[in-house]
Design brief:
Chains A, B: Residues 1-23 are annotated as: Disordered. Two copies of one chain form a homodimer. Chain A is an alpha/beta fold and 518 residues long. Chain A has helices spanning 15-23, 45-62, 69-78, 91-98, 146-157, 177-191, 203-217, 219-224, 242-253, 274-295, 322-338, 356-372, 392-410, 417-427, 437-446, 458-463, 469-482, 491-507, and strands at residues 33-34, 64-67, 81-83, 86-88, 105-107, 116-118, 122-125, 133-135, 141-142, 196-198, 228-235, 239-241, 258-266, 302-303, 306-310, 317-318, 343-345, 376-378, 383-384, 389-391. Chain A has one domain (31-411, 441-518): TIM Barrel.
């Protein structure tokens, strides 16, 4: 059922490593989630067709701005109606292009046991990325360093339900902006042997990521194996910019999938209504998905979005609101209509601390994306303050929440049904089951025991220091970091990666400007 | 769409009342929820049949203990196979009896505008009850008084998504146990004109509730109108006791519905497995539902349960775990299979404070019961510490969460779809929508703006005192209580109710013992 992820190389080492292994709980990665729950599909087939038609009308009549000369040229060659920067896409052309996007693919990790199917009912949890601040092991909000990023990559590696180390979970602010992507990529490769993401903060940065992937996996191997994913945000409404399109080309040319993610602040850059917002978002996603196939026919690509509604009081993005859930259900239906894997955002929160607000927001979002049947479930750990900080405590708790959602989405076990009914006959009215062999055989796998929830009596809880969940999660994070074992990495490849970074740092001027992605 | 709930009587009053009305936000009760979302149904029809068959086997072969001479006599007369206290129920008899339970009914409130349909897709949110402690307006955990109970009844009255004032939200510990039910019932009748629940802590207490309902509604009226609901807990596995059965008879004889609620601690009093637990719970619920029809053919009744899984470490009940969600989905399918309205528990939490644990647990449960399609959604506000306390702060936040879930469950609006698409054409690529007339016309109803979530920047949040959600919710509770307007109650009825209490207090010896219900 689960696969061993500690590579054999790490079994070596001195007495300290052996002690660490003994003290270690079972941190093996869960296999990719095969979501067996029926999906929440609030649209009838006619309503799906209505969104599709509206999106196609937008693509044909309103058009999409591609602020990028190369993309405009590509579109002209592909037969689109290009007027200035605005590309009008005929629905026939769009349907023809997106038809070659694979409905699923294997996302390859450097440890083959951690490779994952993506698409259909197969889903993965990916931690948050992009936070300019963190709340650290002392719950202090501060600027993150490369060491902080490494810490999060280690925690991702040790969280069974997280299937990826992502990339810049937090921004390593102690490095020049123009060099960060190199160290971020190396850190996610080095500290984890799960899948990881590639930076798309500029076309050149994306090329560097591709080169580093080629060192790790081989350029030839990448031609037929997705080994990373990049996120490209659209500027809603209906604009794709040069940075994102250039990064997209860097990935697609190497056959690496991008998340085509319109950046939606419902009511600010979309109409103030659920169904028209989905129609616009769908048009935007389709335009980028189509472009991936202009770049390279058959390249895997992922229907994406970043989605929030904004407060009319402040313009601030909100999380965990009912319309976000509804739109997730609808977007899932649209992505399945086009038979393309899709990405959403998980466990979002706007709270400034890890208080109950963060809990409500995160759990509401998690539940919605599971019922929506999302495939690439990003921002699955740590996100708070509308993405402004990644919280260590929340990261730990979110990761466990993903494990709980995973269990729910696995569905109902029937293999021990008759044995369970035998226990009912054995025990009879008024008895109790704790001593029954069926209970003792089944309890561990029958009922999830959350480590981060405290369910003891208040007296017990007080006797243990009256620690709220933030404190318990931070204690857990320290424990995990104490027993972290770095996954073995081929020495020659490691050296080549480090050499590449040194060379590129010499070539790239150190500058300080930052593109954000969500 | 919404109904006015401030009765005309309250429009009178002095300048203070007029000021209160002016300062008052819109607190009108939302109509009963018509849940339009597709339900999460993880069982195939064959699997539903499998649970049904297993439950019927349990009822026939294992039997159910009715620890009550009257019930045993009733069952003998009804043709059941009674062996000592154990009643073996033939599946034909069970099916015949439950066939006369109405699939839906109207739950009448003293303000007719607040009456509610229950059953099918029609659902209601009912606050928690039964807490022996509260966390008060200062977040202090202490023993509750009758004044505290009145405060919660007022907050229930002013929470738009709460459809009931329930009954003993907190235990009025300043009163003798044997007199409490009288004051609890009066408080829920007096401080709210929504539906309310009736105490079932003893058969005699239940009779008192029926008498007080007869004063308020008229005994004749009750014969054809459910005006309250009582909860009867089973002792799992497979036992119903004298207290609950006597209370059930008091309600059913007056045609008032009871929630037939097995009390399930998964793994302790059921097998350690999801599907067999549901089979046992289903048998238990069916046995009580059938008995309601032995008492009075055609009386409305509700398929109930209290459901948690227990920690194998401590035996403590857990909340928000994946198996509880799965079992809710399954129980919903079973209740619909029998075409009976069903009750579940909402926003449960095991946290000792209103920390992020409470948020995760509550939102996970809320989401599950909405997707499960539950009708009578009890414990919808305030529950924490496994029901040991009701938190004022959590009550306020949970009530808003119910309003958000309500919005989600209403489903997608299509009436402004074309207008929204027109806005997309008007704005075009790169524009923004905030100034567009469609946005200004639609924003308020398009996107829910949670009052209790803070989505401001950290700078703004700090400038406002860096208050976490607990503090904000308590501030909100105080604000609401400042503008509370007591709904008018007919003076003669009010006096008659108070006279009844005085008389019964003189008759009933003041004693100190307590039956809990969940």
């Amino acid at each position: 059922m689960t696969t061993e992820t500690i590579p054999s190389g790490s079994r070596a080492g001195g007495p300290a490593a052996r002690r660490a292994r003994r003290a270690r709980p079972d941190l093996r990665m869960l296999p990719g989630l095969h979501n067996r729950l029926p999906r929440c599909e609030p649209m009838t087939p006619d309503e799906v067709a209505r969104i599709d038609a509206a999106s196609m009308d937008i693509l044909e009549d309103v058009g999409v701005v591609f602020r990028d000369e190369i993309a405009l040229g590509d579109w002209r060659n592909a037969g689109a109606d290009v007027r200035g920067e605005r590309v009008h896409l005929d629905r026939g052309l769009v349907r023809n292009l997106i038809a070659t996007i694979p409905s699923d693919f294997t996302y390859t990790a450097r440890n083959p046991a951690n490779s994952l199917r993506l698409g259909g009912r197969d889903s993965i949890f990916v931690p948050m990325t992009g936070a300019p601040f963190l709340r650290d092991l002392d719950d202090r909000r501060r600027s993150p360093t490369l060491d902080d990023l490494a810490m999060f990559h280690k925690l991702a590696q040790m969280s069974p339900a997280l299937h990826s180390s992502a990339h810049h979970i937090v921004e390593p602010c102690d490095l020049p902006v123009s060099h960060r992507h190199l160290h971020i990529t190396y850190s996610s490769m080095k500290h984890s042997d799960k899948t990881f993401m590639g930076m798309t903060t500029s076309p050149k940065n994306a090329e560097d990521v591709m080169e580093m992937c080629a060192i790790l996996f081989g350029a030839e191997f990448m031609e037929s194996h997705p080994v990373t994913t990049g996120n490209c945000n659209g500027n809603s409404p209906l604009v794709w910019d040069e940075t994102m399109l250039g990064a997209m080309r860097a990935f697609c040319r190497r056959n690496q999938p991008v998340l085509c993610s319109p950046f939606v602040l419902g009511g600010a850059n979309t109409p103030a209504s659920v169904a028209p917002t989905v129609a616009q978002l769908n048009a935007e996603a389709l335009s980028a998905l189509a472009y991936t196939q202009v770049i390279r026919r058959g390249c895997p690509a992922i229907y994406g979005h970043y989605l929030s509604t904004v407060s009319m009081k402040s313009g601030a993005p909100m999380a965990g609101t009912p319309e976000i859930s509804l739109m997730n259900f609808m977007i899932g239906q649209m992505a399945r209509h086009y038979d393309v894997p899709w990405r959403t955002s998980n466990t979002l929160g706007g709270a400034k601390t890890f208080d109950a607000q963060a809990g409500y927001e995160s759990a509401t979002t998690l539940s919605a994306v599971i019922h929506a049947g999302a495939n690439y479930i990003w921002h699955s750990a740590g996100w708070n303050e509308a993405g402004m900080h990644c919280s260590v405590a929340k990261f730990i708790v979110d990761a466990e929440q993903c494990a709980m959602a995973y269990r729910m989405a696995e569905g109902i076990r029937w293999d021990d049904f008759d044995a369970g009914l035998e226990a009912v006959r054995d025990i009879g009215p008024g008895g109790h089951y704790l001593g029954h062999p069926h209970t003792q055989d089944n309890f561990q796998r029958a009922f999830f025991l959350p480590e981060l929830f405290d369910n003891n009596s208040i007296e017990q809880w007080q006797a243990e220091g009256a620690v709220e969940i933030t404190g318990r999660a931070l204690r857990q994070a320290r424990k995990l970091l104490d027993v972290y074992i770095e996954p073995a990495l081929d020495e020659a490849k490691d050296e080549e990666l480090r050499d590449y970074i040194v060379r590129r740092e010499a070539e790239i001027p150190a500058v300080e400007a930052l593109n954000q992605e969500f």
